[in-house]
Amino acid sequence: MIFSLFRKDPRRVAIATLYERIATASRNPGLYAALGIPDTLEGRFESLSLHMVLSLRALRELPPPADDVAKDLTDAFFRDMDASLREMGVGDTVVPKRMKKVAASFYGRAQAYDPALNGGNEAGLAEALGRNALGGDAPATALARYALAADKGLKTVTLDTLLEAGPAFPSPEAFTEERSR
């Protein structure tokens, strides 16, 4: 009985691996250098949020048990955010308030990006990404093209492929303003 506490749960390992692959993709230097996401704490949250939204959208289109994977992946994301706040020295009494803000920000981004991604609306997505990911009024056209391409590519992946190889995101450098024209 006690030894079962030390066994690795294969499902938990698969979710942790999937989340790590998404987080790693969100830290691709090209997102910051080529596509203009600020290399700050906020910028890294924006990049991770965008990659999570894209991955969760892909899972939403797949048959069961993809819905369970999406729930577990979302839980892993929020556990990571909670741990990050604690590592930064946020006190135990303040963490729940900050987590509510993190959740509101994440779900707000998902609601802002979904309609534009659903309709392939590059201009609408560029506006939302410019406001959120780049923190300004200028549209993030190159980042929107990257997100639309990633969304399209992720829609062709099976659940088994997602869990085994992780999501494949395009190279950010392929979407720089000069190359996009």
Automatic annotation (TrEMBL):
Residue ranges occupied by any Ubiquinol-cytochrome c chaperone domain in the UniProt entry: 34-169
Record-stated family: Belongs to the UPF0174 family.
UniProt cross-references to PANTHER family, sorted A to Z: UBIQUINOL-CYTOCHROME C REDUCTASE COMPLEX ASSEMBLY FACTOR 1 FAMILY MEMBER (PTHR12184), UBIQUINOL-CYTOCHROME-C REDUCTASE COMPLEX ASSEMBLY FACTOR 1 (PTHR12184:SF1)
Protein name per UniProt: Cytochrome b pre-mRNA-processing protein 3
Species whose genome carries this gene: Microvirga guangxiensis
